[in-house]
Amino acid sequence: MTNTNTSKGLHIALWVVQSLLAIMFLMAGANKLFQSIPELAKMLPWVTQVPEGMVRFIGISELIGGLGLLLPSILRVKPNLTPYAAIGLAVIMLFATIFHIMQGETSVIAMPIIFMVMAVFVAWGRSKRVPILAR
Questions:
Q1: Containing H/E element for 127?
Q2: Which residue, 23, 50, 18, is CA-closest to 37?
Q3: Each residue's pLDDT tens digit, 13-22
Q4: Would the pTM of this model clear 0.85, i.e. be above it?
Q5: What digits encode the pLDDT tens for the residues 10-43?
Q6: Is residue 2 part of a domain?
Q7: Domain for residue 135, yes or no?
Q8: Is residue 86 part of a domain?
Q9: Average pLDDT of span 51-58
Q10: Are residues 115 and 69 in contact, defined by beta-carbon separation less than 8 angstroms?
Q11: Domain count, the chain
C-alpha cells in the first residue's frame, strides 16, 4: 500500500470518526442544554447530583466541541481548530470517566472512554498525519 493510499484511508477514517463524534456530542449537548433537569434525569441520573449550571455548561461545551469537530474542517476556515475541539472533548470525557468512577458507576465508564479515544484519534490525525489545509 502506498503512502498516498494510506493517507487517503486515514483521511476517510478521520472524517467518519469526526462525524460520529460530532453527531453524538451535538445531540448530547442539546439534551443537556435544552431539556429540563427532571426530564434529563430519566436518562442521566447524575444530573440531579450536580448544580444545574454545571449540566448546562457541559451541554454548551459539548455543542461547541461538536461544531468544532466539523465546521472548521468542512469550511476550511481555521481547520487547525478541529484538533483543539477534539482535545477539549477528550478532556470532557476524561472528567466524565473520573466522575463516574468516583460515584461508583463503573458500569457506565466504557462509553466516555471510547469517545475519549476517538477524540484523541481525531486530534492526532488532524494535527499530525492528515491535516486539512485552509483555503
A1: none
A2: 50
A3: 999 999 999 9
A4: yes
A5: 999 999 999 999 999 999 999 999 999 999 999 9
A6: no
A7: no
A8: yes
A9: 98
A10: no
A11: 1
Q: Return d(Cα 68, Cα 71) in angstroms, integer.
A: 6
105 phi and psi angles, rounded to 5 deg: -100, 60
All 3 cell numbers of residue 66? 461538536
User: Grid coordinates standing for 34?
Assistant: 435544552
pLDDT tens column, 89-130: 999 999 999 999 999 999 999 999 999 999 999 999 999 999
What residues have CB less than 8 Å from 40, skipping those under 6 apart?
Answer: 31, 32, 47, 55
Question: Is the predicted pLDDT of residue 1 greater than 60, yes or no?
Answer: no
Q: What residue numbers bound the domain in which 49 lies?
A: 9-127
Is residue 56 predicted with pLDDT exceeding 70? Answer: yes
Specify the 3-state DSSP secondary structure of 27. Answer: helix
**DSSP annotation string for 31-98:** HHHHS-HHHHHHH-GGGGSS-HHHHHHHHHHHHHHHHHHHHHHHHTSSTTHHHHHHHHHHHHHHHHHH
Q: Does residue 111 belong to any structural domain of this protein? A: yes
